[in-house]
Write a structure and sequence with these properties.
The protein is mostly helical. The chain has 2 helices and no strands. It starts with a helix and ends with a helix. This is Accessory factor UbiK family protein.
Length: about 90
């Protein structure tokens, strides 16, 4: 039978191991609760997902390019019309 300091150290080690496990459980529970709260806050802020933003950005770039091409075409047609009427 184990007595004296060895038993005391064994009990202390067991208590510390149990406390570390409990602390880790509390940490995980806190992280889960904090993550859920942050998700609720972000969902209420009317934010756009990155994929949606990138899709709209690409559409805007394409529309701007098309607009510039149409403006150049219109300018050429106006020049052609002006040269024919002169």
């Amino acid at each position: 039978m184990s007595t004296g300091p060895n038993r005391l150290f064994d009990e202390f080690a067991k208590v510390m191991t149990d406390a570390a496990g409990a602390a880790q459980g509390v940490r995980k529970e806190f992280e889960t609760a904090a993550r859920a709260q942050m998700e609720r806050i972000l969902n209420s802020m009317d934010l756009v997902k990155r994929e949606e933003f990138e899709a709209v950005r690409e559409m805007a770039i394409a529309a701007r390019d098309e607009n510039e091409a149409l403006a150049a075409r219109l300018e050429k047609l106006e020049e052609l019309l002006a040269s024919k009427t002169s």
